[in-house]
Amino acid sequence: MTAELLEELALGAKRGQLKLHVINYLLRHRTATMSDIAKELSVSAPTASRILQELIDAGCVQEEGKLEIEAGRFPMLFGLKPEGGYFIGVDVKRSYINIGLINLQSELLEVEYDLPFVLENTPEAVEEICRIIDEFITRTGRQRSEILNININIPGRINPATGHSYTLFNFYSDQALSEVLGKRLGTRVSIDNDTRGMAFGEFTQGCGKGADVHNALYVNVSWGLGLGMIIDHEIYLGKSGFSGELGHISVYDNQILCHCGKKGCLETEVSGQAMCRKLEARIRAGESSSLSAVLAEGRSITLSDLLQACAQEDMLCLQVLSEIGLQLGKQIANLINVFNPELVIVGGSLADAGG
Fold this sequence. Notes:
Layout lengths: L2 H9 L2 H16 L1 E3 H8 L3 H13 L3 E6 L9 E5 L5 E7 L3 E8 L4 E9 L6 H18 L6 E8 L3 E2 L4 E2 L11 H9 L3 E5 H12 L10 E6 L3 E7 L2 E2 L36 H13 L7 H5 L6 H9 L3 H25 L3 E5 L8
Parallel strand pairs: 4-7, 7-10, 11-14
Antiparallel strand pairs: 1-3, 2-3, 4-5, 5-6, 8-9, 11-12, 12-13
Helix pairs in contact: 1-2, 3-4
């Protein structure tokens, strides 16, 4: 994919929007005929033909052979050119980073899980993210010019349209975080909320792939609690990109201060951090658990400790997990009543715990 095409897509002019529409359509359907494209874009066949040819000239689209039909001429099939460009996805967690490389057909070429990282709201943490990405690019053997975009998923409030992060790394004056990262890494960078990234991945490459699903909800139960919404095949962002803050709806009169600064948030009772807090309180009150040793060492229970104890069928952990699951189920039922989706996906670190 040429730099000129990337610039045209980024500008958002009408022809660039049509080309982006074609790329997204081919991402979903793999191949299409010219008449398919013309119908999808609501344009004439000559216009669709010119757009396809321009995408071919830009190294983005290629001919995929002909579609065999019972009568008439076999129409040409078009698809995205795999080596036309590459994307890197970065998933930033509290204590590790996952990172992967895909080609233009969304085929996963390289992936590395659980790269050590400590999420702190400091410039040093931003630099550490960049270092991990730099080293990953080197290991893939790809040139920076081949990488069309690096998308970094970060917890908290993110406006992907402007590239600003409002919860973490919000210390660059008027500069967008995506701009700062782009200059440091020497390539295009976009950022988004981690739960929306997970929702998009499941919808396009996971549970929702190939299914007749137009509307889906993704509930991310990890250290916190988030929601990703797919509405009419599109990720729902909200006015400022702050949609999906499920964990911060006011539910309880528990007087527990949430990290957002308010009290009674759903996340204070239904999340990984809530489960760790509940376990510590019950162990200190005398209940038995394998995690008693953690407190005896003078340290707090971590999400990793919790998951390991659940895998080992620690009865207290499973009991607390069951209680949290019941509360979460009630809230998911409320979401279903509001959104009426075809699919609900529950993911995140706690999704597989105990089962």
